[in-house]
């Protein structure tokens, strides 16, 4: 209902007229959280699909990823320049902050994705890789509980053990299956999860005094250096420019738009809308989503052992996180939480007290 003042000629005294407009139905309260949650699962899963797409191109996957990080970091730099020149946004940058963020990004983006790329190059399936790396939040929760001196309950250890059994079942069914990967190749996604956890801890204990776009840019650049070195070792020369090849550019656009910025944006939105605990649970929907996506787009088979192992691992993770996180949910930092990057760790508000609930999930989009 709107109230309108109307002047009636020749009188100069206004009269008050009431005009009624039809009410616009409000959007149901669950629509936005559901949309953000689905976006996070899809964009997080897209990283594994994009990795397989990069591996299938004529260029080495390490070189494709090098240019992926260079392009994404360049877009971040462009955003920062526009903010600085147009909106007069001052950038608070110190050498210490940059060094800290480069160190964190070397583990949480570069080290994490090197393990994923090499594993899938050796033939480990996208779904199995997603399942193994999805245990990182549980690993981080266990490590942080030990670091802050909290006793882990029997339920927590039982859930962690059950998750490990689930992964073992999936791996056992995948060995010499889809891509004929050797047994030791399955240790690479485990190394990725450890690298991401180290990056999470570095970011949490020594947070850089940078905003989110700056953190993302420096972490992407750190990953670009690592992948550039890996590409040089593999090809014995500097990374070549991207070829005028449709498959190469399709993989690059897919990884930059969906995996980097899409995953990063949905991750931040999900943290702010739904908090740490629910966001951490959503990451365990990515292995089945990746398996189905890989089956449809890449033609990967979905084995019974993969499905059963994934279900066992999901139950184990849920039990473990129930024991590790939910008892402290009253202290959980909510909508003010942020991420250090896609590929990094969850970074809580830097003024918040240290507790074990805030570093337990991987970061957003870039690490996809």
Automatic annotation (TrEMBL):
Residues 329-343 have a biased composition (Low complexity). Residues 348-358 have a biased composition (Basic and acidic residues). Keywords: Membrane, Transmembrane, Transmembrane helix. InterPro entries: AA-Vitamin_Transporters, EamA_dom, EmrE-like. It is found in: Membrane. Signal peptide: none annotated. The keyword Transmembrane applies. It comes from the Bacteria. The chain crosses the membrane at residues 30-49, 61-82, 102-120, 126-147, 154-172, 184-204, 216-233, 248-269, 276-296, 302-325. Residues 329-368 are annotated as: Disordered. Residues 34-170, 184-321 form the EamA domain. It is a multi-pass membrane protein. Belongs to the EamA transporter family. PANTHER family: EAMA DOMAIN-CONTAINING PROTEIN, INNER MEMBRANE TRANSPORTER. This is DMT family transporter.
């Amino acid at each position: 209902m709107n109230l309108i003042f109307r002047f009636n000629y020749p009188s100069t005294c206004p009269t008050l007229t009431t005009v009624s407009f039809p009410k616009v139905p409000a959007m149901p309260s669950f629509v936005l959280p559901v949309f953000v949650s689905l976006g996070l699962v899809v964009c997080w899963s897209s990283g594994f699909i994009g990795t397989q797409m990069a591996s299938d191109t004529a260029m080495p996957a390490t070189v494709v990823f090098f240019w992926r990080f260079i392009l994404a970091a360049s877009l971040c730099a462009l955003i920062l320049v526009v903010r600085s020149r147009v909106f007069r946004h001052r950038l608070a940058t110190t050498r210490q902050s940059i060094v800290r963020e480069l160190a964190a990004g070397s583990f949480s983006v570069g080290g994490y994705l090197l393990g994923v790329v090499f594993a899938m190059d050796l033939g480990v399936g996208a779904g199995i890789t997603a399942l193994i790396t999805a245990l990182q939040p549980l690993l981080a929760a266990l490590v942080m509980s030990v670091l802050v001196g909290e006793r882990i309950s029997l339920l927590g250890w039982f859930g962690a053990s059950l998750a490990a059994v689930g992964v073992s079942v999936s791996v056992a069914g995948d060995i010499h299956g889809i891509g004929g990967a050797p047994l030791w190749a399955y240790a690479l996604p485990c190394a990725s999860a450890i690298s991401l956890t180290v990056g999470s801890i570095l970011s949490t204990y020594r947070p850089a005094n940078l905003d989110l776009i700056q953190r993302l840019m420096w972490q992407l650049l750190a990953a670009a250096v690592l992948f550039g070195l890996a590409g040089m070792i593999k090809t014995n020369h500097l990374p070549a420019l991207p070829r005028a090849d449709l498959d190469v550019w399709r993989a690059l656009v897919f990884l930059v738009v969906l995996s980097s910025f899409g995953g990063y944006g949905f991750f931040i939105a999900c943290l702010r809308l739904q908090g740490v605990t629910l966001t951490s649970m959503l990451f365990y929907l990515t292995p089945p989503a990746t398996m189905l996506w890989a089956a449809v787009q890449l033609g990967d088979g979905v084995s019974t052992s993969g499905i059963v192992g994934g279900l066992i691992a999901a139950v184990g993770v849920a039990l473990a996180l129930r024991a590790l996180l939910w008892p402290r949910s009253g202290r959980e930092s909510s909508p003010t939480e942020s991420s250090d990057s896609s590929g990094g760790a969850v970074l809580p508000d830097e003024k918040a007290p240290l507790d074990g609930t805030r570093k337990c999930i991987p970061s957003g989009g870039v690490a996809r």
